[in-house]
Specification:
The chain has 549 residues and is of the alpha/beta class. The chain is built from 14 helices and 30 strands. The strands form seven sheets. The protein has a ten-stranded mixed sheet. Strands 3, 4, 5, 6, 12, 13, 14 and 15 form an eight-stranded mixed sheet that branches.
């Protein structure tokens, strides 16, 4: 009897979930019709109506919109870990950064976490010039010469982090993980901790003030993995395209990058919205970042910036200015290398292209070959440079250049992008390099004490060479005439035993990564075997079927 009473009470007090929302049903003809909560309640009688609630009345009334940007950032304090979304100048929260820069006399010694450090005084560069940043955790700084100078002269701390690892470390804390294992950076300076976090005043010649962090490693299924600690943020500055009043966010094209992951990580997340819309305006299917992660919303007032405006060449335009012979020869040489690399691609391949020479490869694809280009900042299906009237600040490639999107393309955040990369879902990665060893080691991100471009996404791109073929395209020798193909790399490694093929203006080499040996497979027209030997800094085998490039 007690059980019957409970069932009866339950049927009155707790209506089924179907009664609490508008639920589509099928009529006798099989087409969808909609029965509202009120209609269902009427059908069920007065008891049903007593426990029905209109959908609009069930929405919490508290909003997260702040009228004043200055007030919204008032809780940022000295010593905070500041997560700043954006890639280059795409998706950068400049409105919030400008507000924080006004507090330069009271907020100092920030640890800034971002993919890069802006460009000049744009983006996070503004906080560098106001002297508010004491340490940077980033993957790439090559676009900010001021920051590079500060680091090389021992005036600021820098923890260089592979781009995918940066996204992973941010995600780990957001998801409640203290650390995670990754193949990225194994057997490199990242594992060894050999990149100084801070130099003494005066630079490398004065010594190291703060050494790098040596990482723990472990083998899984015969592969070495690096244990990377989570990064915990105090405050996150984010820019989004559309945000409703309770914090649900939609990002536009490649402007998501690190933003969603950072927003989920921090104790306090502040979003600057290009468009603040009423609750219910956004389709639940369109939400990239649920409002639970957002604490404050302000109106974005800073204009969008483009770091590298690149447009398609007008096919009808004529350039009557003759090229310098040396420059013309250099261009032809780069095109020759790119043309040869294009022959390695098959129709339908998923391909990632590094910065510089690799971006020339699509121009030389063989007839009938089309590929899907992946860009690590969050694009699959990247198209060519846009015409002037189609430039979009939210559609850029990994080199910060304006590009287009192909029909069938997809956009996503940086964490998703590097899951594709580390997981081996990319067929071919084509990269430039400063040096390559006979065993397939690659070095392409820094010259200690002289040049700090940053790691970027390269370490991740070479982290799964059994599934992703890594091709290096580069000049055979450095500017001083020294070989760039060596027995062992002299510069810090990007990856160990990762390269499968090397293409230069002189020759093509296949790499046996297990045996640590090179085999010469092709030589360029007019190039002798003796010349290749003289300009290569290691021994190599010669294919019995040596061909011409």
């Amino acid at each position: 009897m007690l059980q019957c009473a409970r069932r009866a009470y339950s049927s009155r007090v707790i209506p089924s979930r179907a009664l609490l929302r508008s639920r589509p049903t099928r009529n006798l003809g099989g087409t969808l019709s909609s029965i509202t909560v009120v209609q269902l309640a009427d059908q069920l009688g007065h008891a049903g109506r007593a426990y029905s609630t209109a959908v609009e009345e069930a929405v919490p009334k508290k909003k997260k919109v702040w009228d004043s940007v200055d007030e919204a950032v008032k809780d940022v304090k000295s010593g905070d870990v500041l997560l700043s979304g954006g890639f280059g100048l795409c998706g950068t929260p400049d409105t919030l950064i400008e507000a924080l820069a006004k507090r330069k006399d009271e907020v100092k010694d920030l640890t800034a976490v971002s993919n890069n450090v802006g460009s000049g005084e744009l983006g996070l560069g503004k906080l560098l010039y106001t002297g508010q940043i004491g340490k940077v955790m980033a993957s790439y700084i090559g676009g900010n010469k001021h920051f590079e100078s500060l680091y090389l002269n021992g005036q600021i701390s820098l923890e260089l982090i592979p781009q995918g690892t940066l996204a992973g470390r941010l995600h780990a804390h957001a998801a409640g993980f203290p650390a995670f294992y990754t193949p990225t950076g194994a057997s490199t300076a990242v594992e060894e901790g050999s990149i100084p976090i801070r130099l003494k005043e005066g630079g490398l010649k004065a010594g190291v003030a703060v050494p790098g962090n040596k990482k723990e490693t472990r083998e899984f299924n015969g592969r070495k993995f690096v244990l990377e600690p989570a990064i915990a943020g105090d405050v996150a500055f984010i820019r989004a395209w559309k945000v409703d009043e309770v914090g649900n966010c939609v990002f536009r094209y490649a402007a998501n990058n690190f933003s969603a992951t950072m927003a989920k990580n921090a104790k306090l997340t502040i979003v600057e919205a290009e468009n603040i819309v009423p609750v219910g305006s956004l389709s639940p299917n369109a939400i990239h970042l649920p409002g639970i992660y957002v604490d404050r919303i302000v109106k974005a007032t800073a204009p969008k910036q483009i770091e590298i405006l690149t447009v398609a060449q007008d096919s009808n335009a004529k350039d009557d200015k003759p090229l310098d012979p040396a420059k013309k020869a250099a261009i032809e040489q780069r095109h020759r290398i790119a043309r040869r690399a294009a022959k390695e691609l098959k129709d339908g391949y998923y391909v990632n292209l590094g910065i510089g020479m690799p971006t020339l490869v699509p121009e030389f694809l063989p007839p009938g070959v089309k590929v899907w280009l992946q860009s690590e900042n969050g694009i699959l299906g990247m198209g060519p440079y846009p015409p002037k009237d189609k430039v979009d600040a939210d559609i850029i490639n990994a080199g910060k250049e304006t590009v287009t999107l192909l029909p069938g393309s997809a956009v996503f955040d940086s964490y998703e992008s590097f899951a594709m990369i580390r997981g081996g879902h990319i067929d071919v990665a084509i990269l430039g390099a400063m040096q390559v060893s006979q065993a397939g080691d690659i070095a392409n991100f820094m010259i200690p004490g002289k040049l700090v471009k940053g790691i970027g996404g390269a370490m991740d791109l070479v982290s799964n060479p059994d599934k992703t073929k890594v091709i290096v395209v580069m000049e055979h020798c450095a500017k001083d005439g020294s070989p760039k193909i060596l027995k062992q790399c002299e510069l810090p490694l990007t990856g160990a035993r990762t390269v499968s093929q090397v293409i230069t203006e002189l020759a093509v080499f296949d790499v046996d990564r297990d045996a640590g040996e090179l085999t010469l497979t092709e030589v360029a027209e007019g190039v002798s075997l003796e010349e290749v030997r003289a300009k290569t800094g290691c021994d190599f085998k010669v294919s019995s079927q040596l061909g011409k490039m």
